[in-house]
Amino acid sequence: MSADLPVELDVWKAVAGRREYVGSLPLAGFTRLVDLVESERAGDCRVGYRVGFDRDPLAGPFVELQVEADLPLRCQRTLEVFVQAVRLHQRLGLLIDEDAEAALPDGYEPVLVPASGLIAARDLIEDELILAVPVIPVGPDSAPIEVRFEPKAEEIAAANPFAVLSSLKPKP
Hints:
alpha+beta
């Protein structure tokens, strides 16, 4: 087990050695993720991780990610900042070509490994965190706002596509 996550690592050597990396990284270091969270609060946050490489007799080589983070998000209902706890556990099947994706069992997500065999495990962590960010963040304490809009009479008349025909009809 190693505490330091290398910038790039050789996937096949990591699988052969059943390597495991455990530690934490500053949230501010995930450049793509910082654009989705409240960046002024991101400096205080850390992302805990466990990245383990192994081989499954059925699925072949895989990387197992366990990620924990508290993401500061802006509620789109109240515009207040809230913290969303994210706890992820994901198995990623390591593939050398796209055709092997069909052979992955349920519970595995595919990762296409480049010909060099080098991947950035930090990018895998960031990808999973980005997928965990809701499209429209809503704080747990915000209540839905009941708003009803009644259409105006001219909007109702304009909504009838045959209303124009009544003006063409000859008047007696």
